[in-house]
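Hello again, I could really use a second opinion on something today. I've dropped the whole record in just underneath, so have a look.
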Amino acid sequence: MVNIKTIGILTSGGDSPGMNAAIRAVVRTSIYYGREIYGIRNGFRGLLEDNIEIMNSQSVSNIIHTGGTILKTARCDEFKTEEGRKKAYDNLKKHGIDALVVIGGDGSFAGAELFCNEFQVPVVGIPATIDNDIRGTDYTIGYDTALNTVVQAVDKIRDTASAHNRLFFIEVMGRQSGFLALNGGLATGAEAILVPEIEDDYDKLMEYLGDETLKHKKSSMVLVAEGDQAGGAFSISQKVKEKFPHYSVRVTILGHLQRGGSPSAIDRINAGRLGVSAVEALLAGERDIMVGIRNSKIIYNSFALSKHDLRKLDSKMLDMINMLAV
């Protein structure tokens, strides 16, 4: 093992359920291997503001079941500048921190890669985003919980949709990626989904809504990713009302409801696996990498791979939506 005595940890970007479970794993694994561990509050901003404090086993007691992040997260434009990153590095050295664990998404990893290369600080990333769109891993912390939140919400909405024979447009998160909309749609039996990856999904939706057989359905659910090219759920619903006035159309925006809540068992377990693996990777001399999960096994990928291009949707699963909506 390399000579790393002290490790820092921060969470960055949007919060996601399971981040606390990952923090707990990193802190206690560091202690297990005889290393000091410092928590950095408010993401990269905390590095610049010297908002850094030592952690112990008790610091992470009773957090495995909680959503959000006890270390907080915040945007930091100053970290994008050379002067800002130098200030962050000086604060790391002030506390004797030899290496860093960054829990976040592709934007966070871009900053982490730059910091690692500029100052030769070993950095390992743990993927955490409810969008599940980071290349190089099958899984990101928070996605499973968010997906279950979507499914539970849509199931409840379908009850009232069926009672009134209504067409519901339900907007889920996913500015650049449609994983929540796709898998949420499959899990709830949605009639259609609209996702950023498909250019003509709006035209297909209009064609589908014009089908006479749809009139015999008790309810119809359309899941819309917030970043769909045709616009959000409100915009699309207005166009549908104009073209098909006979539909009783309603809209629900799930919004930040999807980010919160107690993490699922899968998110807790995988957050633990990734947290342990991140510390062990640093102690083994790894740097400038993200730990991920591929085919249920822990893997390492360079930040360069993980931050370029988003994971692609499975085209077969997209076809399933249409097949099962007949």
